[in-house]
Amino acid sequence: MGKFKPVRAHAKKAARPQGAAGCVLLILAIMAGVMVFLYLVMKSNANG
């Protein structure tokens, strides 16, 4: 007969990748750049 081992909970969870913070900052920088671009386009085409 086989020996049964008790199931143990995983002590170590899967860690986030190291590049996660840089990716988030890159996405935020792109979003800010798009907003500034749209602001400048709307400002240049304003009537008045």
Could you characterize what this model shows?
The chain is mainly alpha-helical. Helices cover 52% and strands 0% of the residues. It is built from 1 helix and no strands. It has one helix spanning 20-44. The longest helix has 25 residues, at 20-44. The termini are far apart. The mean pLDDT is 83.
- What is the 3D shape? rod-shaped
Main sheet specs? none
> What share of the residues lie within helices?
40-55%
Distance between the termini: 89 Å
Percent of residues in β-strands? under 5%
Q: What letter string, H or E per element, gives the SSE order?
A: H
Mean pLDDT value: 83
Number of helices: 1
Characteristic key phrases:
single chain, 48 residues, mainly alpha
Gist of the model:
The chain is mainly α and 48 residues long. It is built from one helix and no strands.
